[in-house]
Amino acid sequence: MGVVPARIRADLGEYLRHRRTAMAPPDRPAAGRVSRRRVPGLRRQELAEAAGISVEYYTRLEQGRAPRPSREVLTALARAFGLAPGARDHVFRLAGELPPEPLAPDSEIRPGLLRLLRGLDETVPVTVHDGRLDVLARNAAAAELLGPLPGAGEYRRNIVHHGFTAAARHVLGEEGADRYARWATAELRSALGRYPDDERLRSLVADLSASSAGFRDLWTRGEVATGRSAEKHLHHPLRGWLTFQSEMLHDTERDHWIVIYAPAG
What we know:
5 strands, 434 Repressor (Amino-terminal Domain), elongated, Beta-Lactamase, MLTR_LBD, about 15% strand, 11 helices, alpha+beta, 2 domains, Lambda_DNA-bd_dom_sf, Cro/C1-type_HTH
């Protein structure tokens, strides 16, 4: 294992010590009985056993004297502490490691985000899609602006697949649809980079490659998406052509993307 800077060692040790002392000890005595425990939380030995590492090594981690822990050790510590994804990622960063990538996007939207969508029903179009680029929710304003989702098909909720349909050209116009198709293809490549073994994403690539010459041409360019902000001209079914400032916000823990269409001018 490589050498880790002293400041990182100290910060990691302090965090581990804080989390350990905050944990409830096993078999807490019933009310009225006197506990012989002289330390709050778990003992170092108890935590080390839960993580499957030696107490000597765990002690050195808390004291900031251990070399950089491996990713396997960090994963075991996070499991022993029962850390939520955000706290687990914090431990990895304190050790000078990148947090682990999720195996798949979360399937459920945060309740507070759903309330936000409903609160903006009459004013600002908002959509939510996941890391597989499938639409999870749209508010009423977005549904009115973008039109209904296709009624059938395996990829009816996928925003990349939408980019290669006639409906996209109706809403975005020819030039706008071409820009969107290029962006969507680059987004799909980015998604596959994050979930390289995801069968749904690979099936989507195969489906579009077989059905769309435009997709095949864009896919061979090897572009990866970077833009998260853009001005878009969209055709509203009742109000005609409108201009929006589109902004994408990322919920990293669930790998959900919130897209806000703010009216421009």
